Amino acid sequence: MSHRDYPGPINPAAKEALEFLVTPDNPHLYQDLIRSYLKISDELAESLQKSHVPDTYRKIAHTWRSSSLSLGAEDLAALCKDLESNPENSDLIPLILIEYAKVKTALIDSGNLSTV
Description:
This protein is an all-alpha fold. It contains five helices and no strands. The model has no long low-confidence stretch (mean pLDDT about 90).
């Protein structure tokens, strides 16, 4: 994984940058972004588990990488980048799913979400 100077699976600088976008007109923007990311990520995780086609792995990894990076899930994004570059390496899939579970828990906690 990447060398990082923060604990947990989420870079706090990304959260700060996203929270900066919150306005009085849209006070729940950060929580809405988390909910949307988790909904899409749950679907991607399910598709990744069901597929056995390297090109599908590559497409899923590409989609998941960019959205994960935007929310500060840098290790998950790096794993997705590895799978995108080498979609025949299905050994990366369990690692991606484990990292996503960590990311999901951290995002739910950071967004003060009781349910997603």
